Amino acid sequence: MKPGFDEMQDARGAVREHYRTYDRWLEGQSAETMASRRSEAEMIFRRVGITFAVYGAKDEDGAGTERLIPFDLIPRVIPRDEWAEMEAGLRQRVTALNRFVDDVYHGQEILKAGVVPAEQVLKNAQFRPEMMGVAVPGGVWSHIAGIDIVRAANPDGSGTTYVLEDNLRVPSGVSYMLENRKMTMRLFPELFSLHRIAPVAHYPDLLLETLRAVAPAGVSDPAVVVLTPGMYNSAYFEHAFLAQQMGVELVEGQDLFVRGGFVYMRTTQGPRRVDVIYRRVDDDFLDPLAFRKDTTLGCAGLLDVYRAGNITLANAIGTGIADDKSIYPYVPKMVEFYLGEKPILANVPTYLCRDAEDLKYVLGHLPELVVKEVHGAGGYGMLVGPAATKAEIEDFRRALLAQPANYIAQPTLALSTCPTFVEAGIAPRHIDLRPFVLSGKSVQMVPGGLTRVALKEGSLVVNSSQGGGTKDTWVLEN
Amino acid sequence: MLSRTADHLYWMSRYMERAENTARMLDVNYQTSLLPQGADTAEQGWRGVLSISELTGLFEQRHDRIDARSVMDFMVRDEGNLSSIWNCLRAARENARAVRGALTTEVWETTNQTWLEFNRQLKEGAFERDPGAFFEWVKFRSHLSRGVTVGTMLQDEALYFLRIGTFLERADNTARLLDVKFQALAGSDFFGGQAKEGQEVDFYHWSAILRSVSGFEIYRKVYRNVIVPDKVAELLILRPDMPRSLAACMNDVVANLDQVANEQSAETRRRAGRLQSDLRYGRIDEILATGLHAFLTQFLDRVSDIGAGIGRDFLVPVA
Most buried among A227, A254, A294, A416, using CB within 10 Å? Predict the structure, then answer.
């Protein structure tokens, strides 16, 4: 049997300290109660419209392509000390990543020092030469970062926490973190008197504070907006939700225009100036004059206004250079380079297929490795060796040989599991964690984050677009 | 407020109001068709339903003959009919979803729930089982929607644009209902003609019109008399205290337009105010003397002109 790490039970099957109260409570709940709570949760999510669109999918019931992300009733619980260390690690990592992006677009000290190979950065598709020399407020580039963290089992039964991926462009999922908590409080209010659970509901406040703090210099009462690609985007619910919670306008590209070096939105009372755009649109679609010509999601002339410092974009253009999978292996070195500190959070050991030695190793061990396309996202363009068929492995081998620089590989981690409701009752399922780190005047976050769970038995893919679900995430205060 | 947001709000409430009025109209016709009457009368009623919404042509492309079941089906659930209740509720919900951040949680959830529940009921055969109860349900969802809107929304632009949509749509729908029902009875323009004698006032016909706008009890209360056509017309056109009358709708349109006025909206406001005044100072005998049909046709044109003005002034302005 492969070693495993369960968040609730230790290797001998005893319930871990921080889950004991919950476990006792759960034993007292009948199967019927839990089943009825499950359907209640589903009904509420439908009514609230907490849905996401699946690309290319069709539904029969007139609800279009809107799906619910399955919500699991059993929370993922994190003890206070564990979170404290994680929080310090996140703060450190995101600070270093922001320093890195700022450096890349200014002095490029880290390249000169040879810590990160210059060509890895300068020839990267994610490098935006347009941003060279641009000073962004406070030197902050990734104002909202989603850092994916996993715990993997070691052979001795202990677990190690790794950062799997940094998401520094337009990370999503925070609305599910908030709604999941609301749902648990609604379904099981008694749990909140049994535990001291750190609250998360102030996230929109922190977000607004962050966005206001990075307004262009001299703007005292900045107009903040959320820019969405529109209601057919898979994360539309979240865009609308955050705009509403912050009390700011939710705009689409067609609502914005540039005049006289500033960005305005079209309102019923005429044009109104915009100072900060929390954009949920990728770089490529932001400005048809600068990037993709065919985009209608952005605003023509935006880049010029941005470079002139008359608008703040969150996140900044060009942050993709720091979360590219080919740059990921260097993040611990960035921490040392910029902060002079030892990294608190570990990276997963990573093979760069552009490197001949590494490639050789990867080709020889494909059935054991996870191979990822460096620009892939959402669990697409990825080979999970142990779960793949021979044919899939051979397909990937060909792709790998054709363009080795496009891939990285990592050992298949035995992701930790958490008890989860499935058809047959309660069973362990693999999980990860995405905390959301906000950088403005200071680095802030709410305790925990979004826990995603792979609902299929044995599956390691937690992405919602591929059948993943979510859990409420508790950080205990005692 | 964003012009696009105002646009979605305006159309969201228009579609919800249209769904309600379609349900009202179908309900009354359905109830009438249960009365002992000739097949001709029933068919004429269903023909009226189609012509109110200017859908006779589309219907005939899709159905061979006019009967209760096919017309109700067409008006309730036909996805190819943009005015069907299904499409109205879908459009209301899509517009709401596009600006859910500008709505209170209650308003959004009510609109979303109406759409989901409507589809569930259709699937479960609730409409076939009891059309009357089904129409009643649609009506009450619209009442709920309006109540939640007024009861929870901040009194700012968002609310005003929602209200403008509601009342402009209602004015349009009431006028169409009147026009068709009065013509149905008279063949040509009943009131334009001189011969009132020989025309038997059909209690059921007039009471059906009144019921379709929740006006039956109001009529009794206001006139304390038997139901006669010119009073019915007066109630539904000129009485400012009758919530679904043309006068009441225009009062509300104007009041809400005043709240959102901008630099370019003066002309639209003037036209709306003029229509409001015509109703405020109008007399039913004058209207009937010039011809009800002509009056209503002109009214519909003016309402549509005001709608276009609102679109230009607020909803799709040039930068």
Answer: A227
